[in-house]
Amino acid sequence: MGEQFNRALSQAGTRIVDNIASFLPGALVFIGLLLVAFVVALAIRSALRRGLKRLEFDRRLERFGLSMTDWTPSGSASNLVASIAYWTVLSLGLLLGLTALDATLPTQFAVSVLQYVPHLVAAIMILVLGAIVARFLARAMLIGAVNLGVQHARLLSVGVKWLVLLVAAAMALDHIGIGRTALLLAFGITFGGVVFAVALAIGLGARDVVGRTIERQLREPPAEDKLNHV
Amino acid sequence: MYPVVRALYGVRLRQPATAEFACSSRFVEHALGETLWSHPAAQIGIDLWLATAAASGGFRIGEAEVGMRAHGLRGEEGLDLGATIAQFVGALFTDLERRAAIWQRPRTLAAVEHIASGTTAHAPQPGPVDVERLIEAFRLGYRELRDLWASVLPPLTILDLKRLVARSGDAFAMDDQLWARIVYDFALGCRLRVVAREHLLRSLAPLYSGWLASYILQVRTVSPEAVDQRVEAIAAAFESQKNYLIARWRWPERRRTG
């Protein structure tokens, strides 16, 4: 009895030691990968900050109508890009570290997340591009409307900006497969509803004004100042 | 165009962007050597660019009055004020960027020979202009585009514009020095690509409307001679602000202050 107990104890001890021995290298690799990822992430963040500053990245983005003042607390696109790169590298290091542990569940999780990364990157690119286009078009709309003397130019500009942002967000979410059908349906209903509401508002509220304007446009040329600006 | 060309190139050419001109074979050779022909804005800017090529190349320039001319349209028909300004002022600013090394040199004002053409120039008949509408366009621009302007105009200029917005009627007068600084700051903004070039140029339209309203209020009841004096005063303001442009052109990092 005592001998059996000792053997079982010894086998249990051996199993524990074996498990620790097989787990320890993986854990060490995990910690090592994390440390390497941390150092690489720090280096990349620092290099990106310096490189983008030298390239005047913030000013160039502003030129394309994408100021970061509304998007990040620091108001700097360079800082945002550097931070995104830092966390991406750190996350990748963590996921690679998990695969080194040789545990089935974390490994499956890591592999599925890694497979998802390209879609996520594409979605972020769509969002960034959408934001650039939205800001550019909003500004163009604002200036055009002001030059035409439209009193609610800002409202039109904000409308265009959010419309483009919504389209970009819908496309990005569709790309990463979140609520695909519900999202498309919701977007279709909202967009259709807005267009319908505007059509109704103009049709019912400003029917006479629109009618008179079209009539005037068809009958007589618009009154203009007799000025040659050139 | 006249005040800027006079201030930067030192020539009293009242119509620098005229489409009809004669030139020597030496100037033809000089102009053919310029890189302006293939520029995308050449169709609109070529008249002005040839004049500035002559002025900056040290050629003798003369000007003849040939009366009112109707020029052929070159793609600018049906354009609104913003687009017209974007085309013509854009051409002027492109020229400034290209000849920066030349106009930054100190130069004395050279007289332009006035050639008797035998044709009596008829003064253009003043047409009806709604000044109040121009002022309203300026006020709307200030309200909606102030933030955009602030990316190229210094805070003091924005403050001056704010004061101008509050004025009405005959008290609405834009200072010549202020207008000169605004034009120069926009030229600098285009050079530095602070905002998309087309946006920046189009956003100049309400400011131009404000200046135009101010100018019309000042000259609508005065004699043609007094109008000429007024134009000369504006040109003198552009000349006196030239150092401002040169300083900001050379040290653009100081553009947000002052």
Number of domains as seen in the coordinates of chain B: 2
Q: Hey, roughly how much beta strand do the residues of chain A contain?
A: under 5%
Main sheet attributes: strand count, strand direction, barrel closure of chain A? none
Can you tell me the overall shape of chain B? Answer: globular
Report Rg of chain A: 30 Å
Total strands of chain A: 0
Annotation field: number of helices of chain A: 7
Overall mean pLDDT of chain A: 80
C-alpha termini separation of chain B: 26 Å
Calculate Rg of chain B over CA atoms: 18 Å
* Multimeric status of the protein: heterodimer
Q: What attributes does this structure have?
A:
heterodimer; A: 230 residues; mainly alpha; 0% strand; B: mainly alpha; 2 domains; 2 strands
Structure explained in plain terms:
The complex is a heterodimer of chains A (230) and B (258). With 230 residues, chain A is mainly α. Chain A contains 7 helices and no strands. In chain A, 83% of the residues lie in helices and 0% in strands. The longest helix of chain A has 53 residues. Chain A is elongated. The model of chain A has no long low-confidence stretch (mean pLDDT 80). The longest helix of chain B has 19 residues. In chain B, strands 1-2 form a two-stranded parallel sheet. Chain B folds into 2 domains: 124 residues, no CATH class; 133 residues, no CATH class. Chain B is an all-alpha fold. Chain B has 12 helices and 2 strands, in the order αααβααβααααααα. Chains A and B meet through α2 and α4 of A and α4, α6, α9 and α10 of B.
